[in-house]
């Protein structure tokens, strides 16, 4: 069983308008996943450095970010990052360009944990809705170019429709975890943050992480899922 999670950390700025990266790391520790996809993990302007100081990863249970080798002091690409626990081995990683009007992209890591290989994609899709389907098609095309491997896609899809919209692109090949609303964290009404697994995987359990910290740490709540090989 592998536990994954996705969290839009809003550049570590909480609902109290304070930037407290240590609070974000505390929430990640509460979730206790093996792999976490982050969105809005880098600051938006200037050097776009990580919203979480690198020393916090080591200080808290030895988390490390997958090295996408983009900007100095950044942990991701267009705010997308992937964190893994110490026992997770990173086999391959890549940036996935997508069609866009605003700065968007996705990141991919192929990992091995508990003897199981898994491909994880972190993404933050278009806000307007005009590009989301094309962005998903580009991501899935990139997946098809890689060797066959169980695949999970996670992130802030910005899709308000519960079943339509960009979700039609996942028909037949993927299962969408039935996670509750995540936005706004103070009073969640929209299921913007999603976890999607291909049909080689079984979603054994899933949910949204509610805690006193998570309701303050970001304007999104984290989602999580436990997955295992189907059958």
Compact overview of the structure:
This protein is α+β, with helices and mostly antiparallel strands and 231 residues long.
Describe the overall structure:
The protein is of the alpha+beta class and 231 residues long. It has one domain: Endonuclease/exonuclease/phosphatase (Deoxyribonuclease I, Chain A, 4-Layer Sandwich). It is 15% helix and 32% strand. The chain contains four helices and twelve strands; from the N terminus they run βαβαβββββαββββαβ. It has a six-stranded mixed β-sheet, with no helix packed on it. The protein has a six-stranded mixed β-sheet with strand order 5-6-7-8-10-9, covered by helices on one side. Strand 6 and strand 7 (116-124) form a beta hairpin. The chain is globular and about 40 Å long.
Strand line-up in the sheet with most strands: 3-4-2-1-12-11
* CATH structural class: Alpha Beta
> Whole-Å distance between the termini?
13 Å
Can you tell me the number of structural domains? 1
**CATH fold-level label:** Deoxyribonuclease I, Chain A
The share of residues in helices is 10-25%
Key features?
231 residues; alpha+beta; Deoxyribonuclease I, Chain A; six-stranded mixed beta sheet; 4 helices; 12 strands; globular
Give a topology summary.
Blueprint: E1 2-8, H1 21-31, E2 35-39, H2 54-59, E3 64-65, E4 81-84, E5 89-96, E6 106-113, E7 116-124, H3 132-144, E8 151-156, E9 174-176, E10 193-198, E11 201-208, H4 214-217, E12 223-229
Parallel strand pairs: 1-2, 7-8
Antiparallel strand pairs: 1-12, 2-4, 3-4, 5-6, 6-7, 8-10, 9-10, 11-12
């Amino acid at each position: 069983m592998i536990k994954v999670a996705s969290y839009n950390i809003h550049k570590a700025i909480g609902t109290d308008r304070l930037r407290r990266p240590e609070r974000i790391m505390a929430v990640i520790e509460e979730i206790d996943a093996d792999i976490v996809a982050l969105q809005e993990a880098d600051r938006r302007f200037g050097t776009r450095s990580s919203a979480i100081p690198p020393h916090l990863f080591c200080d808290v249970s030895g988390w490390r970010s997958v090295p996408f080798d983009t900007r100095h002091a950044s942990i991701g690409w267009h705010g997308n990052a992937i964190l893994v626990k110490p026992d997770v081995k990173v086999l391959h990683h890549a940036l996935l360009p997508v069609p866009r009007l605003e700065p968007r992209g996705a990141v991919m890591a192929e990992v091995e944990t508990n003897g199981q290989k898994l491909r994880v994609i972190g993404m933050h899709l278009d806000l307007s809705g005009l590009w989301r389907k094309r962005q998903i098609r580009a991501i899935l095309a990139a997946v098809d170019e890689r060797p066959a491997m169980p695949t999970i896609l996670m992130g802030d899809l910005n899709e308000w429709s519960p079943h339509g919209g960009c979700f039609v692109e996942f028909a037949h090949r993927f299962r969408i975890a039935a996670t509750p609303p995540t936005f706004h964290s103070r009073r969640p009404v929209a299921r913007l943050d999603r976890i999607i697994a291909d049909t080689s995987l079984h979603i054994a359990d899933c949910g949204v992480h509610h805690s006193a910290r998570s309701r303050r740490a970001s304007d999104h709540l984290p989602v999580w899922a436990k997955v295992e090989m189907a059958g």
